[in-house]
From TrEMBL:
It holds the Pfam family NACHT. Residues 579-727 form the NACHT domain. This is Putative ion channel nompc. It comes from Anopheles darlingi (Mosquito). The lineage of its organism: Eukaryota, Metazoa, Ecdysozoa, Arthropoda, Hexapoda. InterPro entries: NACHT_NTPase, P-loop_NTPase.
Length: 1203
């Protein structure tokens, strides 16, 4: 056995060797092993410390002898090696003893016999005979400092040197003790002495002269061993006497006591004698030295403990290892034991250690409990664990903080037994783990399991554990009828470090805020409040801020009304108690810029709270409308934040933390996205907010809300986004996208797209669309595949409803259709089913969001796969089911489709009509309604009935709706209005091309001014009027203007000019003439002077020339000459011509040829209808005026006519 057993360091060193070898073997799952601590002396001798048997890929048997010394500087010297009691001979004899034991027949010879030591090898002496060696076993993942391994390769030289070393010591005059020498191989020593030493009669010996002088004749006469021994002896003397060189000739004529050599007479030459020691012949010695290893510089103490902990991946617990791996000695005399440890045993022990380290009570910080607090608890636990019989389950109720009770229960239990503390969620896993642990380990190491907060439905799992362990303690934060003990605490039992809780982490929108909230002890005197404060580990505060999708983002800037750039830095330093408003059109990118501004404001010391207007509206909607008056200031505004955990204590901490900041910003986005009533409520809330606290509010809304916001906030600054660089966007999207490198075809198509698209949009009246980021994204989707094709073509319908409809179809096609084969019927059916799901669920989601209906959070999450919906980045129940459309306009598209095609709740339908149907603002939803009404078969019968009922409820509003429909150019909507409105209301409409009559301005007017309509709009209006039931009356109302001071439609058509409208009206006049010639003639003649005057002033193009001819033809063919003559008598046409012929209206240019042509036709008209006397007097009357004309051609023409 190991020396120095009485020293605990030695015992630890041996045990650590044992644990270390277990750890190395246990790392390899394919290697089975069994290992014994302290085998029998009678079998293993000095190698009895650790016996290791390995199986698997490299089976083997290893013996270990552990040796450590207290002096860390002591090294293994040659004296240690050659010591006949403690040196290598001891291990040779142990090896020989084992070879003769029956255990050797059973287990075989050892592959390695290892001398395991903390010592190093003496560099200049011992190391000469050792060679570094590698492990013969499979590589093992060791840790810590490398253990140096050596073996004795030339063992015969070493045994010769054993003799030389001991003779050199005899010859050293400075040697302290002169004892009779002992040799590992006595026979070889005796034979060498016979050849090298001379023995005199007086029991003296001396070295032969030939040996010392290295005489050739002598060397030739002795054995090879004797010749090689001479160098070994010289080296031994040199090392003994610590000289750099040594000449053994100095021993000439010196005699030594024969007894010091300890030799026996021999007459054999050394070469004839074999190496042997006791029962070890040369063959067995060869086996021994092949197996023998020095493992040196082995770490010990704390260093080895660290290595062991790492080797067992942190699952090393020395006390537990000693209890279960080191056999208990029954007496002082060591006896052999068969307590081998194997992988199964270690797995169980390691699993137990993992359990004990993993399942512990939550650690308590910042709170201390008085000793008095645990007196009753300790009594209860002692009584429960000491009982031999009785209930094995103890129920404890923790009324304040579960962790407090668990921690104190564990602390008390550890004073007299072992335990683990486990949560409910780990119960099933624990039962499985306990099945992997040996019963002996469970019995000794797991007296009690403490289970936390198990639901009554899971108590069955708890009861199953009683089959594995003796006792279970269940601690619950809910009072149970069967509770055995209630852990009552008083204020004096709990001391808190309030300074620690003054620095609770407060996370606002994923940003850690500096929180130095002062926690006042007097506010937390009750045990209940202290418990609540303790349980606040971190406060998470969420506004509506999120990280938007910014791929292909094009930098934008804010500008004011004077086109001056407004930087984020300027916004940041706006004076307090101020409102800033960002207004722009739908889809312009207000939200993404507002999010970027909010993140910028949050980067410094400021705090920015970002809210959707819908969030505030939802808060108001949940209460009564009047409750908006309760949001009287900053503290109540905090209620809009999502705060977790949620309690008054937490909310007060948040309020204090935010109040400390002097730079507060509140950002409100999408004010236009909520109904008008709640817009007014929110404006009221904001006004109260800025009145209660110095802060800056930034609002984003569509342009149509600018007047309302200006009226509400007198001193607000209004900004808008600069022009969107659509060319840069498309180049980034299609040419610089690294995910899909551009081909030559794509480059050519993009160049064509950018070159021609602007002009196409301009012709279509949609140029501004491409200056809107949202519509650019839509175009990117529409052209995603087309831009890659040869023979690239542009779409030609850029009406906004058509654009969105194409966008939705392309989004679906790009994602879905390319995955299916249109030639396979099953694939076609699958595509149709997915399309139905796509349409129905997007429409229903839009309806649910808009109408704030209740629906499940998970119901629409899969829609995000289609790319039109994203998971809502905020948490909690805000914004309904956690999903939202990628843009408000996309929601409105599906919302309109749902309302028009489904029978929805009446109240929601009315709200929809008031908000989107013929509203007096530029509304994208209004365009979507008109687009879908192009195909009225989509309109369900119930929706048509509701529209009819809606219009019947307030028929006086029809004129307003018609005006808005005309203003918004939504003619499909206009057709529906005139078709479904009450006939009385329709017939009362009055179409005019002038202002509202003064007499009607104070009343609700049915007059509709058409003055601003273009030619196409007038033609569409005429077409609609012709197809409704009251068409005749309405058409007459439109074309006949009885106020001679106002233009009628013919005059407008001449002035604009609108040749197609003029022709259309001429056809309608033809019908009127057939029905009532007198009325027709009267109307034409009454307005003839206005027509002629308009023709003279505005006739500059060929279409107007045609109008002149058509009017002349009407006069000639359809009106009697006397009637015309009477008109010309009262109306001085020549004077009108002379006054206007050289007038150039704004926006037109003087065309001499056209002026001359119309002048000739008017003069001819005068000659045709005026009598000769009347004509002559007119010429004389206006001769002087002719002379004043500036254009010679006109003057000459008229002078010739006068003559």
């Amino acid at each position: 056995t190991m020396a120095n057993k009485a020293n605990k360091d030695g015992v630890n060193f041996q045990q650590h060797l044992f644990y270390y070898q277990i750890g190395l073997c246990h790392q390899h799952k394919d290697r089975e092993y069994s290992i014994l601590y302290e085998g029998a002396d009678s079998i293993y001798g000095a190698f009895d410390d650790v016996i290791l048997k390995e199986e698997g890929p490299t089976p083997g048997l290893l013996f270990f002898q552990a040796k450590q010394v207290l002096d860390s500087n002591k090294v293994i010297s040659l004296d240690d090696v050659f010591d006949m009691k403690k040196g290598i001979v001891k291990y040779m004899e142990s090896y020989g003893s084992y070879l003769g034991n029956h255990q050797c027949q059973k287990d075989g010879t050892p592959n390695e016999a290892i001398y395991w030591t903390s010592q190093a090898i003496h560099e200049s002496t011992t190391k000469r005979f050792l060679q570094p060696c590698q492990d013969t076993r499979l590589p093992l993942q060791s840790v810590g400092p490398a253990i140096k391994k050596y073996r004795i390769e030339d063992w015969k030289t070493l045994l010769l040197f054993d003799i030389a070393w001991k003779w050199a010591k005899i010859c050293n005059p400075k040697a302290e003790s002169k004892q009779s020498a002992e040799y590992i191989c006595n026979a070889v020593a005796n034979a060498l002495a016979y050849e090298i030493l001379e023995i005199s009669e007086d029991d003296k010996v001396k070295f032969r002269e030939g040996f010392l002088l290295e005489e050739p004749q002598y060397l030739a006469s002795v054995s090879d061993k004797a010749r090689s021994f001479r160098e070994q002896f010289r080296l031994a003397c040199q090392l003994q006497q610590r000289k750099s060189e040594f000449d053994i000739k100095s021993f000439k004529n010196i005699s030594y006591e024969a007894k010091l050599f300890g030799l026996k007479a021999s007459d054999a030459r050394a070469d004839s004698v074999r190496f042997e020691h006791k029962n070890l012949d040369e063959g067995k010695l060869e086996q021994f030295f092949h197996a023998f290893r020095y493992y040196t510089e082995v770490p010990k103490g704390e260093e080895m403990l660290k290595i062991l902990n790492s080797l067992f991946n942190g699952d090393f617990e020395e006390k537990l290892f000693e209890n279960h791996l080191i056999p208990k000695q029954t007496s002082s005399k060591k006896v052999q034991t068969d307590q081998y440890i194997n992988r199964l045993h270690m797995n169980s022990l390691i699993e137990m250690i993992k359990l004990k380290s993993l399942y512990i009570a939550p650690r308590i910080s910042g709170v201390t409990f008085s000793e008095e607090s645990s007196v009753e608890l300790r009594k209860c636990l002692e009584k429960f664990t000491d009982q031999a019989k009785g209930d094995r389950l103890l129920e404890i109720y923790a009324p304040y903080v579960l962790e407090w009770t668990a921690y104190r229960v564990e602390k008390e239990l550890h004073k007299f037994c072992t335990c683990i503390v486990i949560k409910e969620k780990d119960l099933a896993m624990l039962f499985e783990k306990l099945s992997q642990i040996l019963e002996t380990h469970l019995e000794n190491e797991l007296s009690v399991i403490v289970v936390l907060n198990v639901d009554a439905s899971n108590m069955e799992e708890t009861n199953k554990l009683l089959k594995k362990v003796k006792r279970i303690i269940h601690i619950s934060s809910n009072s149970l009828p069967g509770s055995n003990y209630q852990d009552e605490l008083l204020e004096q039992h709990v001391e808190m470090d309030f300074d620690q809780f003054s620095h609770i982490n407060l996370i606002l929108d994923d940003r850690l805020l500096p929180n130095t909230t002062i926690i006042h002890e007097e506010e937390f005197k009750s045990i209940q409040k202290r418990a609540e404060l303790y349980q606040i580990q971190q406060i998470d505060v969420k506004s509506d801020l999120y990280m938007p999708e910014e791929r292909f983002y094009i930098t934008r800037t804010l500008t004011d009304d004077h086109n001056r750039e407004i930087t984020n830095e300027k916004l940041k330093h706006e004076s307090q108690q101020r409102v800033t408003v960002i207004v722009d059109t739908a889809g312009q990118g207000k939200t993404i810029e507002l999010l970027r501004i909010a993140r910028f404001l949050n980067e410094g010391d400021g705090i920015c709270l970002f809210f959707r207007a819908r969030t505030i509206a939802d808060k108001l909607r949940r209460d009564t409308p009047e409750s908006c008056m309760s949001l009287n200031g900053w503290d109540d505004f905090i209620k809009l934040l999502q705060i977790a955990p949620s309690s008054d204590v937490v909310r007060n901490i948040v309020v204090q933390c935010l109040a400390q900041n002097e730079q507060l910003y509140v950002v409100v986005d999408g004010l236009d996205e909520i109904v008008e009533t709640y817009q007014d409520y929110i404006i009221t809330v904001i006004r109260k907010l800025i009145a209660s606290k110095p802060l800056t509010v930034i609002i984003a809304a569509r342009t149509e809300l600018k007047p309302k916001l200006k009226a509400a906030f007198n001193h607000a600054d209004f900004y808008h986004l600069d022009q969107f660089a659509y060319q840069a966007y498309f180049e980034e999207l299609w040419l610089n996208n690294s995910a899909e490198p551009a081909t030559d075809t794509v480059r050519q198509n993009v160049e064509f797209f950018l070159k021609h698209f602007d002009s196409i949009l301009k012709r279509a009246g949609c140029k501004s669309f491409l200056e809107v980021p949202q519509l650019c994204k839509i175009m990117g989707t529409i052209y995603k595949e087309r831009i890659k094709r040869e023979n690239f073509l542009l779409y030609n319908n850029y009406e906004i409803g058509s654009i969105y409809d194409t966008f939705i179809a392309c989004q679906f096609g790009n994602l879905i259709c390319q995955s299916f084969d249109s030639q396979l019927e099953t694939h076609v059916l699958a595509t149709e089913l997915i399309k139905n799901y796509f349409d129905e669920n997007h429409e229903k989601l839009a309806y649910d969001i808009e109408c704030s209906t209740q629906f499940g959070r998970q119901q629409y999450h899969k829609l995000a796969l289609f790319g039109l919906v994203r998971l809502n980045p905020t948490i909690g129940d805000r914004s309904k089911s956690g999903v939202e459309f990628i843009h408000r306009t996309v929601l409105e598209y599906f919302l309109v489709r749902y309302f028009l095609t489904h029978d929805v709740e009446a109240s929601h339908f009315v709200q929809f009509m008031k908000r989107y149907f013929c509203v007096s603002r530029v509304n994208v939803a209004d365009k979507f309604i008109d687009f879908f009404l192009n195909d009225e078969t989509l309109l369900c019968k119930a929706t048509r009935r509701k529209i009819k009922r809606f219009l019947e409820q307030d028929p006086q509003q029809l004129a307003t709706y018609v005006r808005i429909a005309l203003n918004n150019a939504t003619f499909n909507t206009l057709r529906l209005l005139l078709r479904e409105a009450p006939s009385v209301a329709v017939q009362s409409l009055e179409f005019r091309f002038g202002g509202i009559q003064d007499s009607k301005k104070e009343n609700v007017s049915n007059e509709i001014n058409l003055k601003r309509l273009g030619e196409r709009q007038l033609l569409l209006l005429l077409g609609i009027l012709q197809r409704i039931d009251s068409s005749n009356a309405l058409i007459l109302n439109l074309i006949l203007e009885h106020d001679l001071n106002e233009e009628d439609i013919i005059e407008v058509a001449i002035r604009k000019p609108f040749p197609e409208v003029f022709d259309k009206i001429m056809l309608l006049f033809a019908d009127i003439q057939k029905q009532d010639t007198v009325a027709y003639t009267k109307y034409i003649t009454s307005r003839l002077s206005r027509y002629v005057r308009t023709l003279v002033i505005h006739c500059y193009v060929s279409s107007e020339q045609l109008m002149v001819d058509k009017l002349r033809k009407i006069c000639i063919e359809q009106i009697e000459a006397d009637v015309i003559r009477r008109v010309l008598t009262t109306f001085d046409l020549l004077d009108e011509v002379l006054s206007c012929i050289e007038t150039v209206p704004k926006g037109k240019r003087f065309i001499e040829e056209a002026r001359c042509d119309i002048l000739k036709k008017i003069l001819s008209f005068l000659e045709m209808y005026l009598k000769e006397d009347d004509l002559r007097s007119r010429k004389v009357q206006h001769a002087a005026k002719v002379a004043t004309l500036q254009h010679e051609s006109l003057r000459t023409l008229l002078e010739h006519w006068l003559e």
